[in-house]
Design a protein that fits this description.
- A three-stranded antiparallel β-sheet has the order 1-2-3.
- The protein has 13 helices and three strands.
- A hairpin with a 2-residue loop joins strand 2 (164-169) and strand 3.
- The termini are far apart.
- By secondary structure, the protein is mainly alpha-helical.
- The chain has helices at residues 2-15, 20-40, 50-62, 67-86, 113-120, 128-143, 147-152, 180-197, 217-231, 239-252, 257-264, 269-272, 274-290; strands at 158-159, 164-169, 172-177.
Length: 294
């Protein structure tokens, strides 16, 4: 079984080009299913039927797993068995016909326009750290890129004169426009702050920590949380919050889904359509609150 899981891991990474988080999540779900079969004396994974999968879903729900976690477990097993079918290990997918209890969809946290302005105004450009933090937050909201993409940027990925940033992710490259205020913040950081922080003149990283090394995910997370607390915004702000806000605000102001999909780097338009549902839900809430006969 360990050989199947390792082969599946390589398939997700090399053929599907899935993110590290996705690979880790899928493998964890498969291993948990395998552990359940060991615990209950069930058959080997490759000899399971839908009955074992359904029993496992019931077991998960009975042990406090949320409906969303159960649904994700089914999706992971469907993917794994689809892979095994393609390799001729199994003849059918035992998870294919299994469904979970439908959970209420939770939309991601979105900042209002005023909250974005308040949040982006928190870094004070009085020292190298302030210039750097201001540039990072402005660029994140200007482009909607992922935090992993942000910290992977190199200095030569920014075209200041054209107002563009080049972003690479999962083997693909895309170019995203930057509004003028973000370009100015980046220019000030690169000219006034970055030279004072980097350890070596040939350092390629656009954003570095105060030790002169490339910024880490953990380091940027702490920056986000620091300015959330400073701004006294009650919403839980994460690096992804600015990405979601970027997309929702573009859609609210007339951008089309295909353009937003391209800027976000979504492989499937269905991932972008969530923002349409969010905007519609917001309009519905406004209507319910404001219409005199609602």
């Amino acid at each position: 079984m360990a050989n199947y899981i390792e082969a599946y891991r390589l398939y997700l990474r090399d053929e599907r080009r899935a993110s590290e988080n996705t690979v880790s999540s899928y493998l964890r779900d498969v291993r948990q299913f395998e552990a359940y079969l060991d615990l209950t004396g069930g058959p080997a994974v490759e000899r399971c039927t839908s009955r074992e999968v359904e029993s496992y879903m019931t077991y998960m729900a009975g042990h406090g797993k949320s409906a969303a976690s159960v649904a994700r477990g089914i999706a992971s097993l469907k993917s794994f068995y689809t892979y095994l079918m393609g390799r001729g290990v199994v003849r059918s997918n035992p998870a294919k016909g299994v469904t979970a209890v439908r959970s209420e969809r939770k939309y991601p946290e979105i900042l209002t326009g005023k909250e974005v302005e308040l949040f982006l105004d928190q870094p004070q450009c009085v020292d190298p750290k302030g210039y750097r933090d201001h540039a990072m937050l402005e660029l994140l909201y200007a482009t909607g890129i992922r935090v992993s993409e942000l910290i992977a940027l190199n200095l030569d990925d920014v075209n200041f004169s054209a107002g563009l940033v080049r972003c690479r992710s999962r083997g693909k490259e895309r170019t995203i426009p930057i509004y003028s205020k973000a370009v100015k913040a980046l220019q000030e950081y690169v000219q006034k702050s970055r030279p004072k922080i980097i350890l070596y003149g040939e350092e390629p990283a656009l954003f570095v920590n105060m030790n002169g090394e490339r910024m880490s995910r953990q380091g940027f997370w702490k920056i986000i949380k620091h300015y959330q607390e400073k701004a006294q915004i009650q919403k839980d702000i994460t690096p992804h919050t600015l990405r979601h806000s970027f997309a929702a605000h573009l859609l609210e102001n007339g951008a089309d889904l295909q353009s937003i999909q391209e800027m976000l780097g979504h492989a499937d338009i269905s991932s972008t359509q969530i923002y349409s549902h969010m905007v519609k839900q917001k309009l519905k809430n406004v209507y319910q609150k404001a219409h005199p006969r609602a």
